[in-house]
Amino acid sequence: MTTPPPAESGVAHPGDGVPAVPDAADASAVPDTPAVPKTPAVPDAADVSAAEGRLAATVERLRGEVRAAHAAAEGRALIELAKGVIVERLGCGPTQAARQLAELADRAGLSRLELAADIINQAARDRMAEATDEFVRTAVGEPPATGASTGASVAVRLRTAESAALSAGDTQAVAESLLRHALEPLGAVAVAIWTTGPDTSLSLRGHAGFGLDEAARWHHVPPGVTTAARQALVGRRTVRYASLSAAGIPSIGRGPHPDGGRVVVPAGTGGRIHGVLEICWPGPLGPLPQAVERQIEALAELCAHTLETLPEASPDSLPVPGGDGATTLAELSDGLYDPALVLTPHLDETGALVDFRIRHANAHFQDPAGRPRGSVDGALLLEAYPATAGGSELFERIERVYATGEPFRARRVRLTALVDQVPLASLADISISRHGASVLFIWRVEDESARLASLLQHAQRLGRVGAFEEDLLTGDITWHGQLYELFGRSTTEPPVALRDLAGLAHPDDADTIRRFLQKVLEQRRVGSTAFRMLRHDGVTRHIRVTAEPAPGSDGGLQAVRGAYQDISAQHWTEVALTATRDRLAATEEAAEERNRLTLQLQHAIMPPAMPPLDAPGLDVAVRYRPAESDSLVGGDWYDAVVLPSKKVLLCVGDVAGHGVEAATGMVVLRNALRGLAVTGAGPGQLLSWLNGVAHHLTAHVTATAVCGVYDPESRTLRWARAGHLPPVLVRGEEALDLPLLRGVLLGALAETEYEETELRLEPGDTVLMYTDGLVERRDTAVHDSVAQLLTVARQPSDSLEHRLDQLLARSKSDTDDDTCVVGVQVL
């Protein structure tokens, strides 16, 4: 990019757009001019625009110079590294190596930077070199991504990015280098490097391509917030989004690039994830070639190394003394009263995590197999406890905590240990957390007797039960703590003896208490009874007492054991249930009577069939099927009547709702339409008047309807609809639904108009009008149900009556609603 030279003072350059104005130093060069009174100069819009243009050009030029300086510095680092490789291989000095590098570059027809990257790739043979080779091989056959370059430039870009990252003093410089050298040629526009905190939070350590305000808003992501970076961290895998907005996942840069694609890669080494690399594309992202994916993975591994070596930016992160912190953590674990192990990662020769080494077992360590803690100290976890890799998934939990830093705590986890090759299982509460590069594993085995005692205590509390034991020889009475609350007594007051229960019982229950005591104390049999206890605080409780005698060694009665239970809630529940049953029975009787009267009204007005209609040249048939449930009396209605003008009024409708309100609304609309039709108005006008009746003269009634007027002389049918399904025309072997005319349902608006149209019928034509109860299904779209109706309507039929019976018999409606069908056949 070329930038114009800066304009010197007092010199006009072509294209500046304003005349040159000399400064005070050049005042002598100004020719004599008439004296003009000095007035403050007010720049016009052109002057301001030109000044801004010159400043913008200057800023762009300076930016280019800074970028060129950065590129030159990073290129020099690669060249110096390649010279070091030549010195090591040829055993020559630095000057000789520089001369050798220049000669080799001239012979190969490459720049020294490209040759240096090639030499480093051959010498390193690391993940970066593998990604470069694969990218170069793939680039020959297929374009890897938008903006991909040649093989030599790929090697230069990746090695330059690596060199800049390893020599950078902070992660911000790493992010800028990755974007400029390695990711922009792939079409990416922004990159973010996240690091994980000790509390599993995410901090933005470096970014490029995002605005400063955007980066400030995403500086810290608290634990538990599901973002794109956290999904990659928790899943420990690469996450791809073709479009971030379509995925609905929040992340940095979603505003500037709402439809942009994302690739989010965990950055980890040795089984531990140090952070996350997030790459942003400006538009939707398609599948990436494998070579590009390998390149991105190599860049993520490079980020992991830099995050591991660069100091933490978060001030609240806790430093761990002693290298991996195992020594300090071991000292802290000895202060715990629960068994604990301090684990450190064990890596294989490739640097992959394969196991954990037990660096320390604390003083309260107890081995299930009875081994002393010295026998497991220093051993590998899977060797000392191979069952951890079994069904409990304990090893996977520890591995996940070490990788992500997210602690794991659970109650009553089954732990299995091998004792003489016999699996011994126990339940324990466990806690796993990462501290620096070490993992602290704490567990507490559940004591069976304590667990059973706790379960019994909870059961007595939930059941409002309290146990007691009374020694009849010494008079000592032992009460469960629940009984003090049950009797309304303080724990400092003495318990109540069985013989004193009558003094606390309702007078009407005295005989019940007497019989109970006689059975237990005299007959020495298990007894149980219920009574009303009058507490001294005025509260009446319903109590059930159960007791059994305990004989002594001499065969005499020594003690009585038993339990009291508060059954007040049960008693009042039974009383309430009895009252509810009575009210329910009365309500059911009233509902049955109401439904019976409603059905009588409906059947009186809407019989299932109607007598023949005296209309010359026209056969009219009607079918009405009420709802199967008596509680769902609906508002479906139909009408077919010969008007004074010898025309025939045909209509079907459906009032919203069920019950008496729907039935009475149906009667109002049906009778109103009959009266309005005598005026001779068309169907559109009739529906408009009927809408006014529904809106103003009824109590919030809404309904749908189809209205038609048939002229026998011209064989034409004029019809209109109000939010209803259109009629069906059967002509020959074809059946089709009529057009969907414009018209809202009745009662919705105070005033509205309805579109009407005319249909000329031919002899043999059949027109079907129906309500939605014929086709409506809960699991099927309406147009699919109408298509099924047309299929049935196409089937040949002997008569109109038979055709309507076929429609009802083969209807697949499952909404338990009324159904009306009106059929008209031209003879």
TrEMBL record:
This protein's UniProt keywords: Hydrolase
Pfam families xrefs: ANTAR, PAS_3, SpoIIE
Matching SMART domains: ANTAR (SM01012), PP2C_SIG (SM00331)
Residue ranges, annotated region (Disordered): 1-43
Residue intervals of the PAC domain: 527-579
InterPro entries: ANTAR, Bact_Sigma-Reg, PAS, PAS-assoc_C, PAS-like_dom_sf, PAS_fold_3, PPM-type-like_dom_sf, PPM-type_phosphatase-like_dom
TM annotation in the entry: none
Protein name, as recorded: Transcription antitermination regulator
Gene3D superfamilies in alphabetical order: PAS domain, PPM-type phosphatase domain, Winged helix-like DNA-binding domain superfamily/Winged helix DNA-binding domain
Domain ANTAR stretches: 59-120
A GO molecular-function annotation: phosphatase activity
Compositionally skewed regions (Low complexity) per UniProt: 14-43
